[in-house]
Amino acid sequence: MSSVRVLVGTKKGAFILTADGKRKNWDVSGPHFGGWEMYHLKGSPADPNRVYASQTSGWFGQLIQRSNDGGKTWEPVDNKFVYDGIPGTHQWYDGTPHPWEFKRVWHLEPSLTDPDTVYAGVEDGALFRSTDGAQSWQELSGLRKHGTGPRWQPGAGGLCLHTILLDPASPKRIYIAISAAGAFRTDDGGETWRPINRGLHSQYIPDPNAEVGHCVHHIAMHPSRPNVLFMQKHWDVMRSDNGGDSWQEVSGNLPTDFGFAIDVHAHEPETLYVVPIKSDSEHYPIDGKLQVHRSRTGGNEWEAMTKGLPQKDCYVNVLRDAMSVDSLDDCGIYFGTTGGQVYCSADAGDSWNPIVRDLPAVLSVEVQTLR
Amino acid sequence: MTATVRIELPAHLRTLAGVGREVALEIDGAVTLRSALAALEARYPMLRGTIRDQVTHQRRPFLRFFACQEDLSHEPPDAPLPEAVVSGKEPLIVLGAIAGG
Lengths: 371, 101
Known about the structure:
The structure holds 2 protein chains of 2 kinds.
Chain A: E1 3-10, E2 13-20, E3 27-32, E4 37-43, E5 51-57, E6 61-67, E7 75-77, E8 89-91, E9 97-99, E10 104-110, E11 118-123, E12 126-130, E13 138-139, E14 160-166, E15 174-179, E16 182-186, E17 194-195, E18 216-221, E19 229-233, E20 237-240, E21 248-249, E22 262-264, E23 272-274, E24 292-295, E25 303-305, E26 323-325, E27 333-336, E28 342-345, E29 353-356, E30 362-370
Antiparallel strand pairs in A: 1-2, 1-30, 2-3, 4-5, 5-6, 6-7, 8-9, 10-11, 11-12, 12-13, 14-15, 15-16, 16-17, 18-19, 19-20, 20-21, 22-23, 23-24, 24-25, 26-27, 27-28, 28-29
Chain B: E1 2-8, H1 11-17, E2 22-28, H2 33-43, E3 63-67, E4 70-71, H3 83-86, E5 92-96
Parallel strand pairs in B: 1-5
Antiparallel strand pairs in B: 1-2, 3-4, 3-5
């Protein structure tokens, strides 16, 4: 019998939610690492029992935890993230040079094929890789050093590398995104990188069409079509059909095209989900109504999914890594809120139920489909 | 000469290291902040990076070092710790700032 395991990172610990394939009755485990900010947890596609977790704290810094039994027990592994060479500077919010400083790991992306290989996206914007199960980390410094690095500027949340997409068809192709530098791609396993931001238009930067400087919030890909990318930018929902070489806007009839989370249906590569958020100065839904918007046409035409979601007095946010999908026959969609709810739709978004209502603010949601 | 030094840890680090309020560590040679923290990290490697930077050895900004009712946070890392710490009479306290969210 299939089952699902939902890995939830919150501001005060991690929680693991499990259910059988019906996704009606849930078991809640946690808090794991209570009191710590758990930015992200993700399981290895090659070995679902191998789970990596980013544990961080303003007092005690960064830790990486690893589980070999699906999150029942954990062991701290290497937490030494040292930039390659003399790191130099990026730009500060006011445009002045600012030294590169490691702050935290935002996102962990295990390899599609090797449980011991895992990538870490960090603040200040850099990509690290471990090939020994997180016992040691090395920076893929070609990204930071490819030329535009000194021009990168942090978004409101910091200069964070938050998105890592591994191409299942081309093992040496990786997409990443940094707020507020933009999206980048490597085709040689991380040695060399180039910005892939053509077609993005951001009115909040001096040159709205600049090569870098766009505040990309998240990118999603369907594994069957890795050349097709969907992006939630600060404002605008975008689509690329050529591996990021160019982008076009597909915001269409969305009530607002600001937001953070975006994901793709597990079996329908043209079915997308976003959570529209009112604006960059008001990080909550319009009129207190929490709505997931679904497009079955790869963008432009969107419909509001509201059944089971609060339609009044709801002022939560859904952060960039807080939406995920399972791959059961009836694709399940999941998202977590800054109000501590984790919602599940077991019918591709038509209706929603809260799995939990009162967790700490949710930072990330990842789903493992177990068979 | 070997000294047995007591170090008191904040709650989260006790949980991380799986220890009680205090740990006792044997230190050969001069007892300083540097040698005490090195002994702590050698015995409990999961604490590396949580109190001081792993490369620069700079104290993390939200942590302080106290002993014998004195703030030792800004003492040079190789300065001798107070005799009462060296003798084990008083603990070296690693204290987290009262700041929350």
